[in-house]
Specification:
The chain has eight helices and 19 strands. The protein is α+β, with helices and mostly antiparallel strands and 346 residues long. It has a domain of 151 residues: 2-Layer Sandwich (D-Amino Acid Oxidase, Chain A, domain 2). Strands 5-6-4-14 form a four-stranded mixed beta sheet. Strands 15-16-13-17 form a four-stranded antiparallel beta sheet. The longest helix has 21 residues.
């Protein structure tokens, strides 16, 4: 993209990318996570997402603000969570309406459920097709003149990147290679403490007469999320598998686990309903928190990673903040969202 003599190149080989494999949920407000920086980032990220969707003109098949239903297995804990939700709602307009629903009311919102749980309805929650979202943004970027190169890169030094048989120089570099970020910056002598985590989900396809697109997302405690989409598609996921490295092969064990979890709420599901198993690799840090900032000794290189399973909610805002910094429009500190990068260098 050319603007005031600035050009932008995006390198993206897409291999194992968690976002492309995901059918994501934008509803961070009632998460069990108590990391204040993470919550601040996720809360602001959810608010920013609506702006991004509008500005990029993302279509209904990419993003739907259909609401979420969050459950707790203990009725007393559900009541306490509802009280917390009402408190948060006062300072968080993006949450929208918050209601405590009994089983019958949940069934009304999701008629396909045969064993509906009680839950908390948050109307501001949204669902997103990760692959469609990535493809849409890349298409938008190309239309603005961004050069897209579908190749893996390797650092030659802090200004030069190798890809294929070529080497090019760049004034500023942003590294956001997810679970692969550790390997990406190693040639610079930087050891980022990031580990991969395998995530699998399954797609279930039914008759197009099923209008699931109007359904909210069900986020049951200690189980798999159920994410309905248009044309009779349900997505169940996702697994959190450590110690699998960068293995991208789907497993029957994960498929059966996800199907079993879904059957707890929709008893008549069958393995024949499964149309696809998708696999991605998330990036996690030792404290399960994301990081963003410039590398020590290399202030022209910015890194962002460790987003884990909340990457669809937090990633776009992080990208926006880095872009503002590089364009000279912001000198804001990252401290509200991230510990210093040095905390994640071994």
């Amino acid at each position: 993209m050319t603007d005031n003599n600035t050009s932008i190149t995006l390198f993206d080989d897409g291999l194992g990318q968690a976002t492309k494999a995901a059918s994501g949920i934008i509803s961070p407000w009632l998460s069990k996570r108590r990391n204040k920086r993470w919550y601040h980032l996720a809360k602001d990220g959810a608010e920013f997402f609506s702006k991004l969707v509008k500005d990029s003109q993302a279509s209904y098949d990419v993003y739907q603000r259909s609401g979420t239903i969050i459950t707790r297995n203990d009725p007393e804990k559900l009541t306490k969570l509802f009280e917390l939700a009402k408190q948060k709602q006062k300072s968080t307009p993006a949450m929208g309406e918050v209601l405590l629903l009994d089983q019958k009311e949940v069934k009304q919102k999701m008629p396909i459920l045969t064993n509906p749980p009680a839950g908390i309805w948050v109307s501001g929650g949204a669902k997103i097709d990760g692959s469609a979202f990535v493809n849409h943004l890349i298409s938008q970027a190309e239309g603005l003149g961004v050069e897209i190169i579908p190749q893996k890169i390797k650092f030659a030094d802090n200004h030069h990147l190798r890809f294929g048989n070529q080497t090019e120089s760049f004034d500023k570099i942003i590294v956001s290679t997810g679970a692969w970020i550790k390997q990406t910056v190693l040639p610079l002598g930087i050891n980022l403490e990031v580990r991969p985590q395998k995530g699998q989900l399954i797609d279930l396809n039914f008759s197009k007469d099923h209008h699931f697109d109007s359904y909210p997302v069900l986020m049951p405690e200690s189980s798999s999320d159920i994410i309905p989409f248009e044309n009779g598609k349900l997505v169940i996921g996702a697994t959190h598998e450590d110690d699998c490295g960068f293995d991208l092969q789907p497993t029957d064990e994960a498929k059966q686990l996800l199907l079993s979890n879904a059957r707890h709420f929709i008893s008549n599901l069958s393995e024949t309903d499964i149309s696809d198993v998708r696999v991605g690799t998330r990036a996690y840090t030792k404290d399960f928190a994301p990081f963003v900032g410039s590398l020590p000794k290399y202030n022209n290189i910015y890194v962002a990673g460790g987003l884990g399973s909340s990457g669809l909610t937090t990633g776009p805002l992080i990208g926006y903040l880095i872009a503002k910094r590089l364009s000279g429009n912001s000198e804001d500190s990252w401290s509200d969202y991230s510990k210093p990068i040095s905390n994640y260098i071994g």
